[in-house]
């Protein structure tokens, strides 16, 4: 059953325990050899370019697109990169280059500063970038937990294909949460202080891709209090719970019931699904901080001004990790992973 629907813009409507969801789909041109676009930047409000001019934005980047150093406290960011590369750097000393289905899950907790830059590595071809960034709230007891950096590499994230052999099917990718009845989709463990790690929180982050002509039933959520939103973001047609959906839409659905999805269109239909039991606490938010009271927000600003959440160990506000496209992560303490 569809309980409510809303059209999709850049920032998508969310329900507790989620705070924010953005879909960035930028068709960047060739790189200029300095990791920026080989194109004119005229007509853009540099430093805050969300224009989508010519199919891409610079965001807060001046030469390289992206989001130079900025602080967070009191919640988590989950960044799922479908196409392209992101360079991460933070005040813990962690660094990463990831993309192509990788997910970074960052618990800001008591405070972290990080940069997310979008280096245009290719000089002889375009540099498309598509990603979701999702903000997941922390309960009051965890808002001042230690920051935590984690990477979920694409080859470790469970995925499966469901449907008749040789016929139209559905690809399911599980970043977090359980889908009862779908074999082989045991999720990776979320960070230890995440709401997703709490018993009964029933947090789920899934993507679905239905072939033309495919039919798929999304199993009901495990918890009776779970809220679920299905975002139809790509494709020319979808039927959800017997209702036609002709344009990109956020669909709040009854989580306790199975959701029948059908793709009657000519293109694959793609959805992001976010679900979870609400935290049910007051939310006070201002810019990069999400707490429970306005007094805690004021404290967060004062703490950041005083401590810079540990300082910034990088030589620029928007570090880029070289021209080698190899995916890697260097964790706090120096342990390193490389993924090719």
UniProtKB/TrEMBL annotation:
Q: Which InterPro entries match?
A: Pirin, Pirin_C_dom, Pirin_N_dom, RmlC-like_jellyroll, RmlC_Cupin_sf
Name the source's superkingdom: Bacteria
Region listing for Disordered, in residue ranges: 315-340
What would be one Pfam family of this protein?
Answer: Pirin_C
Q: What is this protein called?
A: Pirin family protein
Family, similarity comment: Belongs to the pirin family.
Question: Which ranges carry the Pirin N-terminal domain?
Answer: 58-136
All copies of the Pirin C-terminal domain together span 207-310
Matching entries from PANTHER family are given as: PIRIN, PIRIN-RELATED
């Amino acid at each position: 059953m569809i309980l409510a629907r809303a059209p999709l813009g850049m920032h998508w409507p969310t329900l507790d325990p989620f705070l924010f969801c953005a879909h960035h789909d930028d068709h960047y041109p060739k790189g200029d050899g300095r990791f920026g676009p080989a194109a004119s930047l005229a007509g853009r409000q540099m430093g805050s370019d969300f224009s989508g001019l010519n199919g891409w934005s610079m965001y807060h980047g001046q030469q390289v697109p992206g989001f130079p150093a900025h602080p967070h406290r009191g919640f988590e960011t989950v960044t799922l990169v479908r196409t392209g590369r992101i360079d991460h750097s933070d005040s813990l000393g962690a660094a990463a280059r990831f993309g192509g289905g990788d997910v970074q899950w960052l618990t800001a907790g008591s405070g972290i500063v990080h940069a997310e830059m979008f280096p245009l590595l290719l000089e002889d071809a375009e540099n498309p970038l598509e990603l979701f960034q999702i903000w997941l709230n922390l309960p009051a007891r965890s808002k001042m937990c230690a920051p935590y950096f984690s990477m979920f590499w694409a080859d470790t994230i469970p995925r499966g294909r469901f449907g008749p052999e040789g016929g139209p099917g559905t690809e399911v990718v599980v970043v977090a949460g359980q889908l009862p009845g779908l074999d082989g989709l045991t999720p990776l463990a979320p960070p230890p202080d995440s709401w997703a790690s709490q018993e009964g929180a029933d947090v789920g982050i899934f993507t679905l891709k239905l072939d033309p002509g495919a039919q798929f039933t999304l199993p009901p959520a495990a918890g009776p209090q779970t809220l679920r939103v299905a975002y139809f973001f790509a494709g020319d047609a979808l039927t959800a719970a017997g209702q036609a959906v002709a344009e990109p839409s956020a669909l709040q659905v009854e989580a306790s019931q199975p959701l029948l999805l059908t793709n009657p269109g000519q293109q694959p239909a793609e959805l992001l699904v976010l679900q979870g039991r609400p935290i049910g606490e007051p939310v006070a938010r201002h810019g990069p901080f999400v707490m429970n009271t306005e007094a805690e927000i004021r404290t967060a600003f004062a703490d950041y001004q005083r401590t810079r959440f540990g300082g910034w160990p990088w030589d620029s506000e928007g570090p880029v990790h070289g021209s080698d496209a190899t995916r890697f992560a260097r964790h706090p303490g120096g342990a390193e992973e490389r993924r090719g």
